[in-house]
Amino acid sequence: MKRALPLFFAALAACSSGAPSETSGPVLNETPIGTAPPTDHPPIDPAKKPVTSAVSQRISVAQLRGAFPVILGTDVNGKDITWMSGSTPALDKMADVLGEADYAFVTQDNRAPSALYLKFMDDAARDVCDRALKADAARPQATDRVLLRYVGPTDTVTTNAAGVDQNLGYLTLRFHGIKVKDGDAARLAPLRKVFSDSVTAAAAGQSVTAAHVTEGWRAVCVGLVTAPEFHLY
Amino acid sequence: MSLSRRRFLEIAGLAGGAVALRSIVSPRLAQASPDNPQLLLACYLGGGADQMLSFDPRDASLAKFQAPAAYAAGGTGIHPAYDLVVDARVKAVLAATGGSGLQKKGPITFGPATPASFMSHSTDLAVLRGVYMGTLTHEVGRRYFTTGKFPRGLSAAGSSLGTAVAAADGKDTLIPNLAISAETYNETFPTYASGIGVNSFDDVLSLLKPLGTALPTGSDKALSAYEADSDDCTERELDGAGLVDTFKQSRIKARTMVSASASTLFNFKVPAPPALDDLFTTLGIAKSADFAGPKGNAAIAAQALTQGISEAVSLQLAGDLDDHNDWGDTHATGIADALDAIGNLITFLKKTPYKGGATMTWEHTTLIIFSEFARTPLLNGRAGRDHHLASSCVVAGPGIKGNQVFGATSDTALAVRNVDPATGKPDDAAGIQLRPADIHATLLHSMGLSYDHLSNQSPQLLSAILVKP
Asked: Is A39 inside any structural domain?
């Protein structure tokens, strides 16, 4: 279930009465309820046969359409965030490229996670994350922000390690539907390194500014959107 | 001329609805190596090409191939009707050949729509006649010749010839299997070999360049490291069928595809930049509109092959040959334009070093030219030609004996004749019926590659055209 959160959000969007308005997209309640569940299994021994699911598949283009605005919220103009090519929704423009059936010539979605699909998801990730970051920059209240919910614009691992970890855990839940146990710093370590390395690289030895921190969250956002957990369920 | 392809870039279709997530077929690499790459150029003439105009002509000056004798009971049932063709090039050939329309180049006789630019390579070419297509349905015939396996209904079965070639040596190539306005399938080969479909040089650019703003270098490195190390339990849970592995391989391939240096190779514009001047001159590209037709597709193929961007390139060079009405108006023009582009493309491959090295690209290139079927030898009531089972194709390559004709059609109703695969001569009693599967297997064998994926078709090698049978 937790891995199907994007799908769930897509379904949620699809099932809502009427199309989402430009200013009030579906509401995501990311407030934890109860305690975090235990991990499914003990640490993985690579030498042993891994635990696997029976069947998994790639998210469809329709699910992407539903997932992007739910997960990324609205842009600075209050419009649902989705991947745009100029003024056109790129998921519509490139639907056939991404494998969506047109029911005229192609009657079955192609859900192969091909190089072509991943190339354009790379492009999509940078675009939607940029929109989300710009929208967050215009929101002074942290509770209104989508990506920087538990951190300030200049917070880093050095100045607010707990906040960064809390934010990373929140984003992991928001983007992948995976709830990280409180205090599970190890689980967040790879993403934390993406954030801190990106901030460090952006600062290039200078004092860290909000712009440098933004690059850190941009990299985290792109990493989450281009991860298999986002596209497979 | 515009190609009738309706779609933009496409993800390589997975044939038959099957999801091939891991390699089932392990390509055998015999002759191919970094020093001796094996390239494929697969050219498709869409809509059903009239073989009498090109690869399987008849002497139009003979009474038996003229109306009304051809249509009479007991007649030949073959009416080339070259005199009805409007195209000036065909008219010129008719005038020069006393009305026969036959253009003889050594042992090969070409039809009147075959341009000199194409025939100039006749010593390299093997013309295969009497290919039995087993269908009169466009999609079925196209997919049959594309994969070598008869489709399941309209759905392709098997993998494209280009996929099989790209699987052998294309793992580290930018776009191992490029399909230019052509269909491509991958049922059993590794994901990296799946064809990537484009419809124009703009499409190629959108593959090779990031859309929008790229990440800063530092962020890019941090993300790459994260993705390389990422191996958590969730991914493993999702990976029961190898999907995460496939996803990660595709993600790596997607990143490597983005290449600023490669994108400059496809920055087509008129007048040609100096680096593209020879290409455009050879292919006769003089105006921007040329990019939308066979010349433009040939230019993409030329760059992809000569610069080592792709191991396999499939391209459509004619898209509207389905002339059930008024066949004489445009059909020959479509064929002539396509073959002219192919001829000029071969010329370019012959004079352009592969990846700037010591050998010419053509020395590594195996060629196939095909259509989904032929057109009826008699005109219908609308001065058009309908679908006909007996087709032809042309092949060439370093492992193929050129300058020959293999197989035949009959002089009555242009029917398929059985052929002796060892000699290439007609053998109605003991010969085999030539099929796309045989041609695929023979080409792959000539390249030193396995054709195990065709085993359920019981392919017959056409040893008469193999340099090493």
From this structure: no
Chain B residues touching residue A119 (CB < 8 angstroms) = 207, 254, 257-258
* Chain length of chain A: 233
Note the Cα B225 to chain centre separation in Å: 40
Residue A14 placed within a domain? no
Question: What angle separates helix B88-96 from helix B327-351, to the nearest 10 degrees?
Answer: 90
Peptide bond into B271 cis (omega under 30): yes
The total number of structural domains in chain A stands at: 1
How close A154 comes to chain B (CA, Å)?
A: 17
Q: What percentage of chain A's residues is helix, strand, coil (to nearest 5)?
A: 50, 5, 50
Beta-bridge mates of residue B10: B197
Residue A224 lies in a domain: yes
Pairwise CB contact (< 8 Å): B239 & A52: yes
- A193 and B225: CB-CB below 8 Å? yes
Residues with Cβ < 8 Å from B434, sequence gap 6 or more?
B128, B130, B131, B132, B406, B407, B416, B419, B462
Structural domains of chain B in order of their starting residue, each with its CATH number: 10-51+70-209+258-404+427-465 (3.40.720.10)
- At residue A189, the pLDDT reads 95
- What is the secondary structure of A196-211 as a DSSP string? HHHHHHHHTTSPP-HH
Q: Do A115 and B10 lie within an 8 Å CB cutoff? A: no
Instruction: Decide if B345 contacts B367 (C-beta within 8 A).
Output: no
- Interchain proximity A197–B221, CB inside 8 Å: yes
Do the domain assignments include residue A51? Answer: no
Note the pLDDT tens digit of each residue in A70-80. 999 999 999 99
| Tens-place pLDDT, residues B15-50 | 333 333 223 333 333 455 667 899 999 999 999 999
Q: Which is it for the CA torsion B257, B263, B269, B274, positive or negative?
A: negative
As a whole-number percent, the residues of chain B with pLDDT over 90 amount to 76
The residue range of the domain holding A194 is 2-6+57-231
